[in-house]
Specification:
With 255 residues, the protein is α/β, with parallel strands linked by helices. The protein has ten helices and eleven strands. A hairpin with a 5-residue loop joins β8 and β9. α3 packs across α7.
Length: 255
């Protein structure tokens, strides 16, 4: 089974401008992500960007890069443009690895690709990880997911779910060990896509639930397509979104 890794990377970020070029252990973050992806079983790895500074940095370390438009609303839209430029077939599997995850284990990249290949009823695949503390359960920045008996996503939400009636109150008071008892799962933002879905995705209008939750994967569910979800084979460290994340990753990579 052959798959391709595409790493969307943009310079403009509301929280950390120039994030892909931040230096960790002497290398730009985008190079750390690229190196991790190259350790997977992908047949090809490339960076998709709209910024010449990122393009220059990728070329400087010998990476493959594809320049895209600067008007994309999401990384998924950018992936579709890359697929169109390269004229990849509709059944080609692409894994979207976020450009701000320098600690991503190569094994989970393989996992999300293999899961999609093995589940023909799904048009996309992603991963999850158990939630073990109530702070994360109620954190809107930690996206939760629930699945059916076949491992296909039922819903993604920033709200705590599933809601265990006998463990939570409406005020958020929790009777321990609530999060573990609930079986709550945090969504991990790595995706496998079939190219055909990407071409459909850009033609669909934004779904109402997508707008409300600010979660683009809900557009896929709203249009009747299925997303396969599995527990990650390894824990995936959080990416870099804040200055606190910068310091955490610098300490880990420095060690």
């Amino acid at each position: 089974m052959s798959f391709i890794v595409v790493i969307p990377a943009r310079y403009a970020s509301t929280r950390l401008e120039g994030k892909p070029l931040m230096t960790f252990a002497g290398l730009p973050m985008i190079e750390h992500v690229y190196r991790a992806a190259c350790q997977s079983e992908a047949s090809q790895v490339l960076v998709a960007t709209d910024d010449q500074r990122i393009e220059a940095a990728v070329k400087a370390f010998g990476g493959n890069v594809c320049m895209t438009r600067n008007d994309h609303d999401s990384g998924t839209d950018r992936l579709q443009e890359v697929a169109a430029i390269h004229q990849w077939s509709s059944d080609q599997i692409i894994v979207n690895v976020q450009g701000d995850e320098p600690l991503i284990p190569p094994a989970v990249i393989n996992q999300v690709a293999n899961n999609l290949a093995a589940n023909k009823s799904a048009s996309a695949s992603t991963l999850s990880w158990p939630i073990h503390d109530t702070q994360q359960l109620f954190d809107p920045n930690a996206v939760k997911v629930v699945v059916d008996n076949n491992g296909l996503a039922l819903y993604f939400s920033r709200a705590p779910m599933p809601w265990v009636r006998d463990s939570y109150s409406l005020l958020g008071d929790v009777k321990p060990p609530s999060a573990i008892v609930s079986g709550a799962m945090r969504h991990i933002g790595i995706y496998g896509y079939r190219v055909g879905l990407l071409h459909q995705f850009i033609e669909w209008p934004m779904a109402q639930l997508e707008v409300m939750e600010k979660l683009e994967q809900l557009r896929i569910l709203a249009n009747g397509q299925r997303i396969h979800v599995a527990k990650a084979c390894r824990e995936v460290p959080a990416g870099v979104d804040t200055q606190e994340d910068v310091e955490r990753v610098k300490a880990l990579l420095g060690a």
